[in-house]
Amino acid sequence: MKKIPLPSLLGLTVTATFFAVALLAPVIAPYGVSEVVGDVWEPASASYWLGTDNIGRDLLSRLIYGGRTTIFVALVATMLAFAVGTALGLLAAVVGGWVDHLLSRLVDLMMSIPSLIFALVVLSVMPVTMPVLIVVIGLLESTRMYRLSRAVAVDLAVMDFVEAAKLRGEGLRWVIFREILPNALSPLIAEMGMRFIFVVLFISTLSFLGLGIQPPAADWGGIVKENKDGIVYGIPAALLPAVAIAALAISVNLVADWILERTTSLKGGRNG
Predict the structure, then answer these.
(1) In a designed cystine with 60, which of 23, 50, 210, 211 is the match (CB 3.0 to 4.6 A)?
(2) Residue 134: what pLDDT?
(3) Measured between alpha carbons, how far is 130 from 217 in angstroms, rounded to an integer?
(4) CA-to-CA distance for 197 and 175, rounded, in angstroms?
(5) For residues 237 and 59, what is the distance between their CA atoms, to the nearest angstrom?
(6) What is the pLDDT of residue 137?
(7) What is the DSSP letter of 176?
């Protein structure tokens, strides 16, 4: 077995740490997510390792719970985008004809509108809850997964092992999920990692604009918004969530690149 390159190992370690901290947030956070424990913007100390926020809540606890919320919403939205986009992309490539044209034009229409503007318009007229956020962001990001999965599947659909499956009388579901999908997973999984990071940034942006995760729940974008005024006074509370987002983005990118490198070659269809 090939050794994992050092950058990829570092990415795996950091990513796993973020997910573990998010999972164990109630256990490892020193204080409650909304618990006021000190004065406004207290400096780092033995009691508050990262200081306090704009109303005296422990910033470390807020970051831990904020990471839990951000990662959970981003992960579920990314999985939704992957499932919807990949399924429709493979269907369009295999069936072709009017199905392909209809789905592709619909995706082109959605992608012609900037995602942030689209989300702001939708969320301004709908209740801003976690399920609504997940569905809106997942559907918007599914357009990118659709384009990639369709492009990959179009090339695979004309290969010999797919033609052989059709000649054997295999149905559409078999061809899509047993012949094409396993051979398309490499770029799709790498793209899924990229989508996850874009969704994290998307959620943080919406929260900063007031249409993302709503208080008193914490997320990284909301923490930046709450503490942005402190930057004028040299208080770094708003910068810490940005550092967390950057660290997560870099680590996930390293993992996605490693996965793509490991699985880059196509494996010729299912035999038998």
Answers:
(1) 50
(2) 94
(3) 11
(4) 31
(5) 7
(6) 95
(7) I
Give the residues across from 57 on adjacent strands: 36
Q: Is the bond preceding residue 216 a cis peptide, omega within 30 degrees?
A: yes
Please state the φ and ψ torsions of residue 57, each to the nearest 5 degrees. Answer: -85, 150
The sign one gets for the Cα dihedral 69, 74, 75, 79 is positive
Which CATH number among 1.10.530.10, 2.130.10.10, 1.10.3720.10, 1.10.287.1490 corresponds to the domain 6-262?
Answer: 1.10.3720.10
Specify the amino acid at residue 194: M
Domain coordinates of the chain in residue numbers?
6-262
Per-residue tokens: 128? 């801003």
Question: Quick check: 233 and 227 in contact, CB under 8 A?
Answer: no
3-state secondary structure of 169: coil
Q: Provide the total of helices (H) and of strands (E) in the chain, helices listed first.
A: 11, 0
pLDDT class of 270 with cuts at 50, 70, 90:
very low
DSSP structure string for 6-66: HHHHHHHHHHHHHHHHHHTHHHH-SS-TT-B-SSTTPPP-SSSTT-B-TTSBBHHHHHHHH
- Across the range 109-136, mean pLDDT stands at 90
CB 51 within 8 Å of CB 15: no
The label of the residue with tokens 């985008």 reads 81
What would the two tokens of residue 28 be? 């490892």
Query: What does the pLDDT average to over 191-195?
Result: 88
Which two three-digit tokens encode residue 149? 């999965």
The C-alpha torsion from 18 through 23 and 28 to 34, rounded to 10°, is: 100
Q: What is the dihedral of CA 59, 64, 70, 71, to 10 degrees?
A: 160
| Of the candidate ranges 71-85, 166-180, 224-238, the one whose mean pLDDT is the lowest | 166-180
Would you state the pLDDT for residue 10? 92
Q: Is 43 exposed, middle or buried (0-12, 13-18, 19+ CB in 10 A)?
A: exposed
